Amino acid sequence: MYDYHVHSTYSDGSFLEWMVGAASDAGLDGVGIADHCVVTPTEAARSHRRLMGFNLDETYERRREAIRKLDDDHEITVFDAVELDYHPGHESAMQAFLSSAGFDYAIGSVHELDGANVHDAAHFAEKTDTECERLVDRYFEKLVALAESELFEIAAHPDLIERNPQLRGYATDDQYERAAAAFADSRTVPEINAGRVTREYGSFHPTTAFRDTLHAAGVSFTLGTDSHDPDGIEPRADALRTLRDESAIDPVVVAD
User: Fold this and answer.
1) Quick one: which of 105, 121, 131, 232 could link to 227 by a disulfide (CB 3.0–4.6 Å)?
2) Tens-digit pLDDT profile for residues 25-72
3) Euclidean distance between CA atoms 114 and 149, whole angstroms
4) How far apart are CA 178 and CA 1, in angstroms?
């Protein structure tokens, strides 16, 4: 089993050596180091980069050397990947970076909504139901645009809004169907993300209802633990194995 989505100290995760060792101990056949990166040429994006340290576009070659060494030292395959923030209207900047960097694969993700990170519960706390409905619809518009951009092999946590209690439960069947149709026509494969299975949210992304809609549209999945520390890999990988076996999911291989 391949876990295509973990992070290292090249963004907001733990040491490469620790993450790869934990993935090997968890019995995985391969692990993808997919650190966060932002290349959108706006002042808001530049500020975000400075605050979060998401500068993989400047450090990926150094990280690549370390990944090659770890791939040689361990019996597990280590993939050189990226999780790139997707912002509609800036596809050319993202395409230029991905083409020049030559990663094993790229993960696209939508994190920004209403000028804030989707995780920022305080930002959305005072929103009305109507405002939340509008924002969730905007999230799915961005997700559809991500699939249609054809920039990425994988789409991360395709209903990230569910992690935010202020936005949870507003997604509709129509939004699920629009996203499923876009992924059915795209090379981009949504992942089953276990990043919150053992934490407060307690569920996979996408939700069961969204996953069923995607499956009905003929959309396949990859698997990702979205781990930021080594202790998170094994329990999340075990949860993914259980879901895979009980749901008869046949994950797609995007890199081998």
Assistant:
1) 232
2) 999 999 999 999 999 988 888 888 888 888 999 999 999 999 999 989
3) 21
4) 30
- Pairing outcome for strands 154-155 and 189-193: parallel
Q: How far apart are CA 211 and CA 197, in angstroms?
A: 15
Position 198: which residue type? T
Domains along the sequence of the chain with CATH: 2-247 (3.20.20.140)
Q: Is the peptide bond before 206 cis (omega within 30 degrees of 0)?
A: yes
Is the pTM value of this prediction over 0.85?
A: yes
The one-letter code for the residue type at 19 is: M
CB 155 within 8 A of CB 188: yes
Tokens read off for 146: 């991500």
Please tell me the distance from the alpha carbon of residue 71 to that of residue 75, in angstroms, as a whole number: 7
- In one-letter notation, the amino acid at residue 92 is S
